[in-house]
Amino acid sequence: MNIAILLYDRFTALDAVGPYEMLGRLPGAEVVFAATRPGPVRTDLGSLALTADVPLDEVTAADLLLVPGGPGTAGLLADEEVLGWIRRIDATTAWTTSVCSGSLLLGAAGLLKGRRATSHWICLDQLRLFGAVPVPERAVFDGKYATAAGVSAGIDLALDLAGRIAGETVAQQIQLVNEYDPRPPYTAGSLSTAPAGLADTLRANDLVVTAD
Amino acid sequence: MNIAILLYDRFTALDAVGPYEMLGRLPGAEVVFAATRPGPVRTDLGSLALTADVPLDEVTAADLLLVPGGPGTAGLLADEEVLGWIRRIDATTAWTTSVCSGSLLLGAAGLLKGRRATSHWICLDQLRLFGAVPVPERAVFDGKYATAAGVSAGIDLALDLAGRIAGETVAQQIQLVNEYDPRPPYTAGSLSTAPAGLADTLRANDLVVTAD
């Protein structure tokens, strides 16, 4: 199982690392982190870099492609080097997947036309720009295309994928290794559960968290 | 708010990145990833490296210290360079925290004597070796010491910490930015919910996931 994870400047760390922690534990998984230029790639918060071990042109096929999201996607929506690579890898995959605004890159690559897909709540409607059908769910499957909602949703998507790829028992082992029995101390993780006005505050501040 | 996150060879990526994604979004947060030697630090699965931007001796204080876990902890339980650094930073913190087997490093540094603490289920009892009181809960607070259970539990702990540090509204903003409304597709994330025998299988295989 060859897994390719795209990195790019100002991606969101957990978008990539949540699914990595799940899918990287599949028996036989071989994961490669790839970017336009190999070396450290900075996340959106600036204080962390993940290493891209290989340049995009050295990855020519994958069983599973994962495209994380983050503010850096905006600058790549017309980047033919990245979009062309996504299209070429997609032609070889069993699964093409994204987390958060990574689905906008799949859309910009032309892969989601007429397909149901999801994204971070702040940019879900932008999927329409690429002919996709936005679905406000945490994980959306349409054929081999699997898209997750914002950031942490990639963990749920990846565990679902693990079960589809390797069966329920393997997925449950992965869940128990990661002790994934979530107990959020607050109930504010979705538009439908968050206190009124919270999303508007975040929209007004480009998702930057502010003290009152 | 200065946050120091320790990296070391064969740490578990999500142990560090889950809390980073939450705490790094606190207003005014300044996060630094530190290791014995700066540069790329490989995770337990080998296919990912996170960058340590500074060596340990350049970090002399922090408001919050986070020690992730992973198989690499075993080799550090008598490493005076790392344990001494943890003790020195702890002397300056408002919060000293760990995820997964990171609590064994806090214990080995002598910080958990007589304190309630948790860890990954596979090594929870080892906390007794350091005079700590093992508590099989997802997040355990004892004074300024906050420990999380395995891997993904660091997300819940960090969101709890975010609320204690900056208030409920900030924590809820962070939760909504990360769309943290978990929906695991399986129910196997804890010893009490996993199918019978699953933990024994993982114990027999040193937590390496195997196909049947």
Spatial arrangement of strands, main beta sheet of chain A = 5-2-1-6-7-11-10
Helix percentage of chain A: 25-40%
Element pattern of chain A in H and E: EHEEEEEHEHEEEEHHH
Tally of alpha and pi helices of chain A: 6
Radius of gyration of chain A: 16 Å
Based on secondary structure, the structural category of chain A is: alpha/beta
The separation of the N and C termini of chain A measures 47 Å
Chains forming the largest contact: A-B, 76 and 76 residues
CATH topology of chain A: the name is Rossmann fold
Q: Give the number of domains of chain A.
A: 1
Instruction: Please tell me what the overall shape of chain A is.
Output: globular
Give start-end ranges of low-pLDDT stretches of chain A: none
Q: Do you know the CATH architecture of chain A?
A: 3-Layer(aba) Sandwich
**CATH C-level name of chain A:** Alpha Beta
Which percent range describes the beta-strand content of chain A? 15-25%
Mean pLDDT of chain A: 97
> Based on the structure, what is the oligomeric state of the protein chains?
homodimer
* CATH H-level superfamily of chain A: Class I glutamine amidotransferase (GATase) domain
